[in-house]
Specification:
Elements: E1 5-10, H1 16-29, E2 34-39, H2 43-47, H3 56-65, E3 67-70, H4 84-92, E4 96-102, E5 116-122, E6 132-136, E7 139-142, H5 148-164, E8 169-174, H6 182-194, E9 201-206, H7 207-216, E10 223-226, H8 228-242, E11 249-253, E12 258-262, H9 279-291, H10 295-310, E13 313-314, E14 326-327, H11 330-339
Parallel strand pairs: 1-2, 1-3, 3-12, 5-10, 8-9, 8-10, 13-14
Antiparallel strand pairs: 4-5, 4-11, 6-7, 11-12
């Protein structure tokens, strides 16, 4: 019997504890082989005077397990508080952010039922390097950093991901008609590395018209790779085009560590009411299972989730009269998924992770 994999779990703030409990219940029901170490992050830590939102002991757990399943957190308003996501990405070199954006029509409302796009976002550089200063009294400046090693890692990851998951095309979004050196370097590296993958179609778009095409005809894209800022914005847009930001999970991958999460926030107004949809965090956890070598469990629980969606068992945010059959709470949704473990959807496309290996 395979030994358990140690992971670090943070239940977060707002709806975080509820959706984490639901997600872990599904993973347990599917037979995930995990040893869980829990840490505290977020609002309570910030308010204790820690501007990073994470205690030193929590870093010890992350260094030990190298796998982080993180619920959303609340960052207090006001200056002086650092983004925990940015801090974690930099500390562990999490250079690749992976966000699948998939339509689940007709069970989830969308104008683009054929959408199946994966956004691969560079995660450490660009304007998110956080290098800002006051140039004059009236002028603030932010530096945009793009490096050849950074471009090479993210572009190669995008092509390797496409190959591992049987994807046919990789598209590059850049703005090198204006930012000829920074985005120009990203484009150049894309062309250089793309030659090594002759079986995969390559194309590039200027990001503004590419974004318009994504909004109008997302079916035209497969895997899209782009610098940090564009990827942050467009992955949220793509998730909503597919049906709901609440259904999108996210993986942050580095050479030795990885973090998995939902892309939505902590929604404090919905906290403690058994309303929240755990699907985004759950789908992030599915990516985690594949990453740690438990693709068999990932496939089993993901297909059970698809079957639940197909059966019309929906939380309030995706409930639609005439399509949905039962409106359920967070706990009940998790129980419905667990009850369907071993089943596959009959109309939605079932997942197959037998070939997946991007670690």
């Amino acid at each position: 019997m395979s030994k358990n994999t140690p992971i670090t779990v943070a239940r977060g703030d707002g709806i975080g504890p509820e959706i984490m409990e639901a997600t872990l219940a599904i993973l347990k029901g599917g037979g995930a082989r995990l040893d869980i170490e829990e840490i505290e992050i977020g609002e309570k830590v910030y308010l204790r005077g820690n501007t990073a939102g994470i205690e030193p002991s929590a870093w010890d757990s992350l260094r030990r397990t190298k796998v982080f399943l993180k619920a959303p957190i609340t960052t207090p308003q006001g200056g002086g508080y650092k983004s925990l996501n940015v801090t974690t990405r930099k500390a562990f070199g999490l250079y690749a952010n992976i966000r699948p954006c998939i339509a689940y029509a007709p069970y989830i409302r969308t104008k683009h039922p054929g959408m199946d796009v994966v956004i691969v976002r560079e995660n450490e550089e660009d304007t998110y390097s956080g290098i800002e200063h006051r140039q004059t009294h009236d002028v603030m400046q932010c530096l945009k950093l793009i490096s050849r090693p950074g471009c090479e890692k993210i572009v190669r990851y995008a092509f390797e991901y496409a190959r591992a998951y049987g994807r046919k095309k990789v598209t590059c979004f850049i703005k090198d008609n204006i930012m000829k050196m920074t985005d120009g370097l990203f484009h150049q590296v894309f062309d250089e590395i793309g030659v090594e993958y002759p079986e995969i179609e390559k194309e590039h778009w200027i990001v503004d018209i590419g974004a318009a095409k994504l909004a109008d005809t997302p079916e035209a894209f497969d895997v899209i790779v782009m610098p940090n800022l564009y990827g942050d914005i467009l992955s949220d847009v793509a998730a909503q085009i597919a049906g709901s930001v609440g259904l999108a999970g996210s993986a942050n991958i580095g050479d030795g560590c990885a973090m998995f999460e939902a892309i939505h926030g902590s929604a404090p107004r919905r906290a403690g009411q058994n309303l929240a949809n755990p699907s985004g965090l759950f789908l992030g956890a599915v990516q985690m299972l594949v990453h740690i070598g438990q693709a068999d469990v990932a496939e089993k629980v993901h297909n059970a989730w698809l079957k639940t969606i197909e059966d019309g068992v929906h939380t309030y945010d995706i409930f639609k009269e005439g399509v949905s059959k039962e409106k359920v709470g967070t706990k009940e949704f998790a129980a419905a998924v667990v009850a369907r473990i071993g089943q596959k959807p009959s109309k939605l496309k079932a997942v197959d992770y037998s070939r997946a290996n991007t670690r």
